[in-house]
């Protein structure tokens, strides 16, 4: 049985910054209960995460994260530009962040980021058969490129410096994909 979606009674902006808008959403559920939820304003811009493999190594980046106020290790990622396919966005982000493109792309999965408060989707792609090509990116400083042996995926999964949920999801997805490919 498909549940009836709550009816949106009203929307209002609670807070707004240069990057975010938070909305209050007044809802009426099918059982008659009214409730106000808060969410980030929905936007139609998906993002990509790139798992780049160079030979027997994963290519990771170490990048400053203001949320934790430290440098974090993770995969190349970024927003999709209007009109781009996930593969085009992934290739552009890879070239901007680490100066490499990929000739071979494999779509691994799409994940939703915290759907209770956001409508955002991120596409995880595997990039292989890499070639040098640097594009200008929007990072304020060059990102450190970290080569990590594919043979040590389990160690990376347990590493204290690789612990962001999206990166972990991507790495588990890669591990399952590589097992099936063998």
TrEMBL record:
This is ADP compounds hydrolase NudE. Its EC number is 3.6.1.-. The gene is nudE. The keyword Membrane does not apply. InterPro entries: NUDIX_hydrolase-like_dom_sf (IPR015797), NUDIX_hydrolase_dom (IPR000086). One of its GO terms (molecular function) is hydrolase activity. Gene3D superfamilies: Nucleoside Triphosphate Pyrophosphohydrolase. Signal peptide: none annotated. Keywords: Hydrolase. Residues 43-170 form the Nudix hydrolase domain. SUPFAM superfamilies: Nudix. Pfam families: NUDIX. It is an enzyme of class 3 (hydrolase).
